[in-house]
Design goal:
Elements lengths: L4 H8 L7 E5 L16 H13 L4 E5 L1 H17 L6 H21 L4 E2 L4 E6 L2 E6 L8 H4 L10 E2 L7 H10 L21 H7 L7 E4 L5 E5 L22 E6 L4 E5 L1 H4 E11 L5 E5 L7 E7 L3 E11 L6 E6 L2 E8 L4
Parallel strand pairs: 1-2, 3-6, 7-10
Antiparallel strand pairs: 4-5, 7-8, 9-10, 11-14, 11-16, 12-13, 12-15, 13-14, 15-16
């Protein structure tokens, strides 16, 4: 339970034999607005109050240091390497659900129910993760790395409804969190910009060149890790035509920029898993991007995608999530070109 309306309604749908559990996770103590986070002290208190109002016990698991080592530190190291990591995919796909399922086992619970907007469906003879029916709230991308073998112990009670229906259900039940605001992504940032956070975590604001694809210097920057592929604003260069960040070189503290055409990608490799044998998929390469048709080729470490149309802003460290008929059939982390 995050303290918000979604997990509260998931609990409501799980009554009467339920236990509420909240993870207390590490937050940047220097962030400007820690209470926006889904794992803040205020969120823990809200989750506890919801449980007590519904007459069920509540447990808080203090995983702050474990979370920092498993999710936050790799996030920082990824940017240090010049990547664009997605900590929410790593958290949900590994850390969060592993700890919650372990607690469910210790508590003697048959199922772990969460307030995520996703579904569990049978596809090609096995249980797999499916998109939530509300496309504006679908969270299957963030959950895509959950091992399908664990899905028989997981439930997503909200996957078949909209956010508006969830709030209405909470209001009918008289839950105090019915109109509580949305929690932010990357909760550990505590309301701050990730660049400020990274600088506080030791990434140097070191002056370096912004160059074109031929190596000609066009301007200067104050840290290669401040830039991600596809970024157009804040490049600090003035040219006759629009330019975009193409990549960052951590070894030389260099940011390479170029045209939109140079930004286009039609193939990529990812480290991960195919959950069923598949050749043609819809590939989603960022949380906010549209899925595109792609041909899949299995590799020793994961898979390679040949995209049916150019995609702009593909970033090393982001998740490549593969769908077939709205069902997640594979997921991996995008690798650098060899």
């Amino acid at each position: 339970m995050s303290g918000g309306v979604d997990s509260a309604v998931a609990l409501l749908k799980s009554l009467p034999n339920a236990i509420g559990v909240t993870l207390r996770l590490w937050l940047d103590p220097d962030g400007p607005d820690a209470e926006r986070a889904c794992c803040s002290p205020d969120a823990v208190l809200a989750a506890r109050a919801t449980c007590h109002a519904l007459g069920v016990p509540h447990v808080t698991l203090d995983l702050r240091e474990e979370f920092r080592r498993a999710v936050v530190d790799p996030f920082v190291r990824g940017y240090e390497r010049g990547e664009t990591p997605n900590p929410c995919v790593h958290c949900n796909g590994g850390f969060r659900f592993a700890r919650l399922l372990a607690f469910a086992h210790r508590a003697g619970a048959d199922k772990l129910a969460t307030g995520h907007y996703a579904r569990i469906v049978e596809h090609r003879g096995r249980l797999l993760l499916g998109r939530g029916v509300d496309p504006s709230k679908d969270q299957s991308y963030m959950l895509a790395k959950i091992d399908p073998a664990k899905l028989d112990r997981i439930s997503f009670p909200l996957g078949g409804q909209s956010k508006e229906e969830t709030r209405a259900e909470a209001e009918r039940a008289g839950l105090a969190v019915a109109r509580r605001g949305e929690s932010q992504e990357a909760c550990f940032l505590a309301g701050d910009d990730y660049r400020n956070f990274l600088e506080r975590r030791g990434l140097a604001a070191e002056d370096g060149p912004v160059v074109d694809e031929e190596g000609t210097e066009l301007g200067r920057h104050s840290g290669y890790w401040r830039f991600t592929p596809g970024q157009r604003k804040g490049l600090g260069v003035a040219t006759g035509a629009p330019v975009y960040a193409l990549r960052s070189d951590a070894r030389t503290n260099t940011v390479v920029v170029g045209s939109l055409e140079s930004l286009a990608r039609t193939s990529l490799a990812a480290t991960g898993n195919l959950y069923v044998p598949v050749e043609e998929v819809e590939a989603k390469l960022r949380y906010r991007s549209e899925a595109v048709p792609a041909h899949v080729q299995p590799t020793a470490a994961g898979f390679r995608l040949e995209l049916a149309q150019p995609v702009y802003g593909v970033a090393v460290g982001q998740a490549a999530v593969l769908y077939e008929d709205g069902v997640v059939v594979g997921a991996g982390i995008i690798e650098a070109d060899p």
